[in-house]
Amino acid sequence: MQSQQIISVNLWQIVISLCNLIILFLIVRRFLYKPVKKVLAQRQAHVDGVYEEADEARRRAEADQAAWAERMTHAREEADAIISRAAENARMNSDLMVSDAKNRADGIVRQAEEEALLTRQKAEEGIRRELAGVSAELAEKVLGREINESDHRALIDSFIDELEDSRDADQ
Amino acid sequence: MTETKKTGKPSRVIDVLLILMMVLPLLAAVVLKVLYTPESKGVDIHGALVYYAAEGADISQVISGDLIITEAQINSWLVIISITGFCLFLTHGLEEHAHSARQHLAEWLVEKAESLVSGNMGDFHLYITPFIMAMMGLSVFSSLMSLLGVFAPTSDLSVVFGWAVLVFFLILIAKICCGPKVFVKSMTADGPVVAALNFIGDFSTPVSMAFRHYGNVMSGAVIGVLVASFLQWLSRTVFGGIGAAFPLLQIGLPGILSIYFDVFSGGLQAFIFAMLTMLNLGGAFPLEDWLKRHDRRRKEKQAAQQTV
User: Fold this and answer.
1) Do B166 and A18 touch (CB under 8 A)?
2) Per-residue confidence (pLDDT) for residue B4, from 0 to 100
3) Angle CA(B28)–CA(B142)–CA(B69) in degrees, nearest 5?
4) Which candidate in A1, A8, A29 is best for mutational testing of the B interface (most B CBs within 10 A)?
5) What does the domain layout of chain A look like in residue ranges?
6) pLDDT per residue as tens digits for the range A66-84
């Protein structure tokens, strides 16, 4: 078996070697590069999809959260309004009750005063009438003559008034 | 665990076949080497064995145009078959949710190659990634063939020169892809002297790339042979007859040297070759002119459509 010189160039060998490299390039591209790139692209697409979904879910969650927060603030405002309204009602009710009670108490007191005044007037009237009758009778008996009832009454009234005035002055 | 079950797991049978596709070519290379290596005495440094020569081909010529098939070609083809098996094995049973180590390896390889290309040439040239992968794979595995004791195709100048010629054509295509006007203008922009230098530089690029790669791998092989034969002589003189029958001193040192010359240097040269390819291609491609041209063409097309 012969062998080549250690440094030798052969045209055919160059051409064959050149074609070898092209063939291996096509093989690598077909059987290694493209399948791997395809899988990588698929994975990238999948990952992008997952990210998109996550973003979407997050957006939705944030929207929900905002809605809930709004609702919560509304609820708090509402609760505050309800409480203040209730407090107002209660205060109004109590004011009403108190004033009502006061009115009634005033009415009762006034009625009692009026009744007392009336009773006293009646009593005074009765006493005065009785006193006039008695004194007239007494004077009739003493003087033995009929005196004018009306003159007499005026006299007695003035007398009583004087009596009352003196009593008031003493007091 | 066959595919008929549709469990989503890759079929073991196909895996085994693909692994055989990876391993058998390498075994075949070893068998061919063992069968056809002529008995040699002393230091014998020669090129590739010639398995087939056309009628009247003169093998002893340094530069020849005769059709011959040598060890280098056979081993290249075996490496290609092996790499094909490797690619098929890596991409067998790819799925979106990567569980297997081989898928991680496949993705790692592709991503590393892409980052290398985009780092050296820019993202615009990512389409060239499989070419760079093929080039590095072929170069590395060809150099590593010497670990099996067979002829490394990269230690044949014609093989590496073929790759360099391909790179030269690619650079030429990249330069004239914007039309001959841009090409001529870029070549002769700085006067006739620089134009001549540019011209020489374009032709010397593939030659220098080829000789760098070939020289490094070949020198490793030569040094390996020299050291091995020196150790053979040493063990014969030290141990006498036993040393001649069993060159004991050959154990150890050639292996350590092989780590540098076959593994490290082979990988490094593959990397350098790919890097030079990328840099030369990236530098040759007039991206701005191309984008301008592309833009103008698109506008012309739109204008034509509007008039229709």
Assistant:
1) yes
2) 43
3) 65
4) A8
5) 12-170
6) 999 999 999 999 999 999 9
